[in-house]
Amino acid sequence: MKKVILKNSVLKGSLTLPPSKSAAHRALVCSFLAGSGTVSPIIDSKDMRAMLQAISALQSDASVVDCIESGNTLRFIIPVAAALGKKVTFTGSGRLPERPIGDYLRLLPEHGVKCVSDGGLPLSIEGKLTAGRYEIAGNISSQYITGLLLALPIVDGDSEIVLTTKLESKPYVDMTLKVMRDFGVTVEETDNGYFVKGKQKYQPRDYYVESDWSQAAFFLTAGAINSDIELKGLDLDSTQGDKEIVDILRRFGADIQADEKSVRCKKSPLKGIEVDVTDIPDTVPAIAVAASFADGTTVITGAKRLRYKESDRIESVASNLRLMGVDVAVNEDGMVITGSPVHGAQLNGYNDHRIVMAFSVAALCADGETRITEPDSVNKTYPSFFDDYNMLGGKADVITVR
Question: How large is the C-alpha radius of gyration of the chain?
């Protein structure tokens, strides 16, 4: 078992962030369906290994696809495998077997694919996906929509994806459509969903993956509360929804300068705000840390889907904030945080990469030492996080506890 011990420090300097996991996953699926081409750069994270081995399993006609703990991989690859007519069983670890796949268990049998599951993983599928009308809620997970969008262009016939509720996390779907266009496949957005023409072909190409705005949120928050950090390689015109963290931190009062070369954030007095995270739920751990150091109250809404991530992130964030002395109230849709004196504490990492990274930022200017369990969870998306943290001047020591 490992813990990370964090002491007060100030981060200062420049950093180039890892490539976007979200963009890389989409590009890897498109490249696989195109039959050739490269996708780079990618990093050796657990989520990237999950996607690469899932694609390898489909290429080799393996009977089992292990998605490890990657929700993206599972929900993207299920309909792709079905569109290819694969007979395969999907497995996973951590909380992944508990995460929802119910819409696929309903939709796939309606369109030619037999599903065997007790409601989660393992899931076995057999048959070939057919075109048609796919009615699906837009407020459960945008990953379902992305999976269908990636798969339906290669089936024999035109299809409609009909959203029965408002689409949440729409920027992730916009990213999917953008990457698909880059590979020569087009989809028409309609008044209530998407029209997907069948028998399209993904075009081979070499694809460059942009830097990750989701990871930028942690270091920009660090800059806002006590540091001076410049992040390089970020695209201000990106379809990544998490780039909104720049505007959110500016609303808190952060001093952020941004141009086509870099984004720089410096320590500033912060004040509480109201923020709807319906389209950007992954930014909540970072926003909650900024709120803890802000004067006044911050209200976070639109976060209910966080309960089905690697941990129940609403409860994980709230529990750790309380341990650090922060006043926080939880509701079904989010939380209310009142800026408070923040002190070091023994925290639970919940085997959740975003929880560990967020509270490593909180530890920068907490009163006293902070310890967080399961620091290795950052390997899911950002294995070099603590290396980069320390390179900028942080004091993080990952130790093995017997």
Answer: 21
Give residue-wise pLDDT tens across range 162-211.
999 999 999 999 999 999 999 999 999 999 999 999 999 999 999 999 99
DSSP conformation class of 209 = P
Catalytic residues: 282
Name the token pair of 321. 């904030």
* CA pair distance 169, 103, nearest whole angstrom: 17
Query: If DSSP codes are grouped into helix, strand and coil, which group holds residue 49?
Result: helix
For residue 31, CA distances in Å to 173, 301, 372, 390 come to 18, 37, 38, 35
Six-digit token string for 393? 């001047």
DSSP 218: H
Q: pTM for the complete prediction?
A: 0.93
Quote the tokens at residue 142: 């945008």
Phi and psi angles of residue 161, each rounded to the nearest 5 degrees, phi first: -105, 115
**Residue type for position 133:** R
Predicted confidence (pLDDT) per residue in 285-334, tens digit: 999 999 999 999 999 999 998 888 889 999 999 999 999 999 999 998 99
Other CB atoms within 10 A of residue 398 CB: 15
Element (H, E) at 221: helix 213-226
Structural contact between residues 290 and 336, judged by C-beta atoms closer than 8 angstroms: no
CA distance 258 to 280: 20
Q: Where are the beta strands (DSSP E) in 76-157?
A: 88-91, 113-116, 123-127, 133-136
User: 4 has which bridge partners?
Assistant: 372, 398
Using CA atoms, how far apart are residues 96 and 94, in angstroms rounded to an integer?
Answer: 6
Distances in Å between the Cα of 365 and the Cα atoms of 10, 59, 231, 283, 343 are 8, 49, 20, 20, 8
Residue 279 has phi, psi (to 5 degrees) of -95, -10
Question: Which candidate, 192, 86, 74, 78, places its Cα nearest to that of 133?
Answer: 192
| Token duo for residue 268 | 């500033």
- 12-16/193-196 β-pairing: unpaired
